[in-house]
Specification:
The structure holds two protein chains of two kinds. By secondary structure, chain A is mainly β. Chain A is built from no helices and twelve strands. Chain A starts with a strand and ends with a strand. Helices cover 0% and strands 50% of the residues of chain B. Chain B is mostly beta strands. The chains are: A mainly beta, B mainly beta.
Chain lengths: 117, 114
């Protein structure tokens, strides 16, 4: 079956520090990969996605590259802000296989990020 | 822009009671997904519906049932509630049409079973 493994947290950084959250996956087919962010008391928001190997997803200064050879989709940001404090989930979907869309997701454990001023 | 609406936002029930959670997808979205997120856990897929038919099933207990109605809203019915059912329940919607078919999540319903 499919699975997603994220680096364990929590991660605590100072403002303007460089962020990396590692994510690796196991899938039987050719999944699409996502990063979702969950702010306190809120739902899950899509941060970025990549649907095929070597695609780079980017949004709000965050980026991640779909690496098929290492089955990875690590999240990076060059300079974090206090407002980036949240829980980050890496996820995969078989997506558009047999007509399904990207909504059936397998999530990683989540990584809590805290950014201090 | 309209988002996925879930109601209620919070619900407290006693053991062995029944709960009904509602989800209103983004307009013109044809697919609804339900997820359960336990405390400190990642969301787990429960069930999905496409065009009012069940399209996929995950780790949904037999005590739970769900359906999607003609207006595309969905309801998750949970019976014989147990303490372990306390969790955040998310609904997400998506569409098979158009270039972007990713899922958009609601803010969730926090169910507490006492």
């Amino acid at each position: 079956g499919n699975s997603v493994t994220q680096m364990e947290g929590p991660v605590t950084l100072s403002e303007e520090a460089f962020l990396t959250i590692n994510c690796t996956y196991t899938a039987t087919g050719y999944p699409s990969l996502f990063w979702y962010v969950q702010y306190p008391g809120e739902g899950l928001q899509l941060l970025l996605k990549a649907t095929k190997a070597d695609d780079k997803g980017s949004n709000k200064g965050f980026e991640a590259t779909y690496r098929k050879e290492t089955t990875s989709f690590h999240l990076e940001k060059g300079s974090v802000q206090v407002s980036d404090s949240a829980v980050y989930f890496c996820a995969l979907s078989e997506g558009n296989a047999g007509g399904t869309s990207y909504g059936k997701l397998t999530f990683g454990q989540g990584t809590i990020l805290t950014v201090h001023p | 822009a309209a988002g996925v609406i879930q109601s209620p936002r919070h619900l407290i029930k006693e053991k062995r009671e029944t709960a009904t959670l509602k989800c209103y997808p983004i307009p013109r979205h044809d697919t609804v997904y339900w997820y359960q997120q336990g405390p400190g856990q990642d969301p787990q897929f429960l069930i999905s519906f496409y065009e009012k038919m069940q399209s996929d099933k995950g780790s949904i207990p037999d005590r739970f049932s769900a359906q999607q109605f003609s207006d595309y809203h969905s309801e998750l019915n949970m019976s014989s509630l147990e303490l372990g059912d306390s969790a955040l329940y998310f609904c997400a919607s998506s569409s098979l049409r158009g270039p972007n078919t990713e899922a958009f999540f609601g803010q969730g319903t926090r169910l507490t079973v006492v």
